[in-house]
């Protein structure tokens, strides 16, 4: 089994290295070599796929020679998400080559490095390995965002990397305190945080650090910018599995089930609900399919964050909430990743007989995300509703609010579908690898979600076939369809058509809050620059006065200046640094 783990880690690394080395030969040979490697790069994910399917459940495996001692495992949280990552990244890599993506070998290299980090997040059993994987994934994703090289992509990449680094700093500070409290192994982390003297601070940093990746309001602003900038295969993994790394971070390190923290739990629930419902307005006022889908992801991640907040506030339901969150993450990862890949598939297969299969697949995926009966979304949302049944907020039960998220999803998906169907597309390419891998995601998403939910019974309940269960899954979608039909009628009714035409021209820039935040940042920078100019002007006056005073320095001061000049030399300053460093080392040893 150790050989399988080592090969799982090394194979993506070697494939990325081969992509780089292939470019060192002649131009023609380099192009052919990199194209060949990119074509079969999805095979590098097979060892991790084998681990997800047959990896042992008995304790973590230890590789003492790697880093500070690496511990890896495939548990009930990481195993299904690892399988989702393998399927989604493989489909993205196949689509990258089959759909003639520009600079496909480069994109394949960044996808492979992102996958390795993403997979390590799901299988890490110690904090150091988890953070290593999280960082590799986050930094590699920057290459996915800026791949197109346009001004929009560069701006999106800049916003992404700034927020990512801020989140990384918060995460690193939190994990260092977790390890200091005794949480080097992830299995010990929740209890270590609970008994730490800095529990409140650790929880705050964890919520912020992982909240950036999870797209939690108000840290969500990178998502609507990154998705339209990145190629559709990259958008699929960004929304399908990368943002789930933030969720896994919460599930691994927050003291869920260890201690009740109603304040932080309710705060996260409030922010999650704001994201789940407030994403509707900016999502509808978009003219790009992928931006509308990105706001749908923000809404869905708000749904997931509600489960985490409820578990943080109520320890007795933590186990059910964690498993329900994993089932929901599996459903959303495959369904939403399939929708983003469907953008590429539609644009390259939107003509000819294949288009009817593509339209049918897109409809199935959209119904799954909305939570239609018998789909993966119905299973995931039913499990979530059952898990948080006893939890309320301001006198309202969360189980009564969460179904309305399906109404938001329905409206956003209708908008995205309309933009996709009315947008441009290429000639029909016929059946290819992208279409086949996408079809596997459509079928596999529903089957896998049902299997997970049934396997984890009785902690997780699955919807039955009785009329009440079917109606609970159906009415939120019907409300969304009714609102969409009403909006369509108003746009075609004579008395409101002019107003509707005016409203259609209104848009909200992707990133919504980011526009105000950028204006605020520019204002702060302007104030700082003006203040610096003022201080510089005043300091020049002060410097002139000081210079005039130095002519009257008495002889002893001249001697001190001579000593200062000697200390300022490279040799003297180096000696001083060595002496001070040696003194500090001696003090540490003696202590």
UniProtKB/TrEMBL annotation:
Spans traversing the lipid bilayer: 6-24, 36-57, 77-97, 104-124, 130-147, 159-181, 201-223, 235-253, 265-285, 292-311, 317-335, 356-375, 401-421, 433-453, 473-494, 567-590
Keyword terms of this UniProt record: Cell membrane, Lyase, Membrane, Oxidoreductase, Transmembrane, Transmembrane helix
Subcellular location: Cell membrane; Membrane
InterPro entries (UniProt xref): ComplexI-like_HydComp, NADH_UbQ_OxRdtase, ND/Mrp_TM
Signal peptide segment: none
One Pfam family from the record: Proton_antipo_M
Membrane topology per record: Multi-pass membrane protein
Main location: membrane
BP GO terms, sorted: ATP synthesis coupled electron transport
Residue ranges annotated for the NADH:quinone oxidoreductase/Mrp antiporter transmembrane domain, each copy included: 124-344
Cellular component GO terms held in the UniProt record: plasma membrane
Superkingdom field: Bacteria
Protein name: Formate hydrogenlyase subunit 3/multisubunit Na+/H+ antiporter MnhD subunit
Source taxonomy: Bacteria, Bacillati, Actinomycetota, Actinomycetes, Mycobacteriales
